[in-house]
Amino acid sequence: MNYKIFFVSLFMLCISIPFSSPSLAATVSGTVTMTCDTYTTGKIDLVLESKNFSYITSVSIDAPGPYTLTVDDTHLGETVFIVGWWIKDEINWFSVGDCVGFGPSFQLAAENTVDVDINHKCTASVSGDVICDAHTTGYIIPMILGPSGQPSYFGLILSEPGPYTCYVLDLPFGTPVWVFGYWNIDGLGYMTYGDYAGWYTGNPLMLSEVNTGIDLVISHEIVASVSGTVTCSPFTSGYTCFLAYDGPDPNTANLKSSGQTFPISPSAYSMNIYDTELGSPIWIFGYWDKDGSGTISPGEYMGAYPGNPITLQQTNSDINFDMCACIDSDGDTICDGNDNCSDSHLESTIVIGDCDTGVANQYLEDGCTMSDQIAQCEENAKNHGQFVKCVNRLTNNWKKSGLITKKEKGAITRCAAKADIP
Q1: How far does CA 325 lie from the centroid of its chain?
Q2: Alpha-carbon distance 126 to 214, whole Å?
Q3: φ, ψ for residue 23 (rounded to 5)?
Q4: How far is the C-alpha of 393 from the C-alpha of 404, rounded, in Å?
Q5: Which of 59, 112, 307, 399 has its Cβ near the most Cβ atoms within 10 Å?
Q6: What is the DSSP string of 15-63?
Q7: Contacts for 38 with CB less than 8 Å, ≥ 6 apart
């Protein structure tokens, strides 16, 4: 018997085709609508699944409209749901451009009416290898999280480590996504204490149509959860993200959670904590990702739970804070917790020694200004030649990034060469 196993959101869809069926004791019927795209040709497949990963029955229909599934008497009373998909290219496998949809979960009775809207389009694929050396039982579940923090994919559940493919739903190219996976040891279908997690080290991935070599090493044990609410009165767009560290400075401490994003503020949040002994101190932070880039940028906000550090318990609730009440010592709009230069040089132009270059002193992504980085060259240089070489390297990078022109680069390097530094 062959098995094909699919997964969407946090539910598992295991598909197998039985040779025979016991007595028929229930029916599931309803209407299939197609709002993902205009249906033209091929088949629409519907599969009835139980929440413990097992296939129950399936049917194919030639066009949107009525369907009926017949079910044997061993499944009455189970919580079940329906997944449907349209393989547009008529190839017997899901691929980019196909459509998928889901009906609500329900308790199986003798007669059931459930409508299914096939309303999600597969826009991209993400594939790679899963490495999970400790795997013995249960399932390995790769997933794609969109900027809202919600799963947005249709993909494989693995019975053992190896290659995986996830199909991303509805997200356009260039969207930052987080590739994540976990080993569901007990096979319950959701993440809990004692499971293991891992993620792509290049997160966030900027989505393209085909994304390959996106490997996951699932090696972090889930030991606890943290939840609460967050406020941010200036919040207007983008997302909020939450992180936990084993120290008070996010720039130097070890990350003890995967980043999880949420779309609105004020809002509830939750995250899992990995590889930490219960009773250990943990510092909780959040930031407002205004531009949706997946990382904190100049002009964004970062805040901390005022009761930091918490003493980690298995369940940590009511960890509430205002992420937009951040401390910004140098007034550069980067909160100190994420500012590599918390006492920035904020002059309007770059001045080296007694020489004013006339070039605007711009903010950079790490919270430093251009003048800050030139000052770091001065601090680290053992002689004048090393200082000039360091400044030349900076200006080359700024010019390549489009921050300064060739003329402005020349003005900066001339001032550096003239300066009596160090």
Answers
A1: 25
A2: 7
A3: -60, 145
A4: 13
A5: 112
A6: EE--S----EEEEEEEEEEE-SS---SS-EEEEEEETTS-EEEEEEESS
A7: none
Cβ neighbours around 184 below 10 Å, total: 22
> Among 119, 101, 145, 143, which residue's Cα sits nearest to residue 263?
145
Instruction: Find how far residue 404's CA is from the centre of its chain.
Output: 33
User: Which residue intervals of 57-167 are DSSP H helices?
Assistant: none
231 CB contacts (<8 Å, ≥6 apart)? Answer: 265, 266, 321, 322, 323, 324
Exposed, middle or buried by CB within 10 Å (0-12, 13-18, 19+), for 254? exposed
Q: Report pLDDT digits (tens) over 204-216.
A: 899 999 999 999 9
Tell me the C-alpha distance between 141 and 190, whole Å. Answer: 10
How do residues 153-170 score in pLDDT, each as one tens digit? 887 789 899 999 999 999
DSSP states of 132-150 as a string? -TT--SSEEEEEEE-TTSS
Structure tokens at 309: 């550090």
Q: Where are the beta strands (DSSP E) in 333-377?
A: 349-352, 355-360
Q: Which two tokens stand for residue 279?
A: 């009773």
CA 74 to chain centre: 39
d(CA 403, CA 350): 13
Strand partners, 220: 197
User: 70, exposed or middle or buried, with CB in 10 Å at 0-12, 13-18, 19+?
Assistant: middle
Determine the Cα–Cα distance for residues 319 and 310; give it in Å rounded to an integer.
9
What's the DSSP call for residue 405?
A: -
Residue-by-residue DSSP string for 260-301:
EEESSSSEEEEEEEES--TT-EEEEEEEEETT-SSS--TT-E
What type of residue is 131?
A: I
Of the candidates 320, 277, 279, 322, the one whose C-alpha atom is nearest the C-alpha of residue 301 is 322
Beta bridge partners of 138: none
By DSSP bridging, strand 281-289 and strand 301-304 are antiparallel
- The yes-or-no verdict on residue 404 having pLDDT over 60 is yes
* Cα–Cα dist 348/371, whole Å: 10
pLDDT digits 0-9 by tens, 246-294: 998 887 899 998 766 666 556 888 899 999 999 999 999 888 877 777 6
Helix (H) or strand (E) holding 409: helix 406-418
State which H helix or E strand residue 101 sits in. Answer: strand 99-102
Alpha-carbon distance 172 to 26, whole Å? 41
Across the strands, what pairs with 141? 182
The neighbouring-strand residues paired with 124 are 168
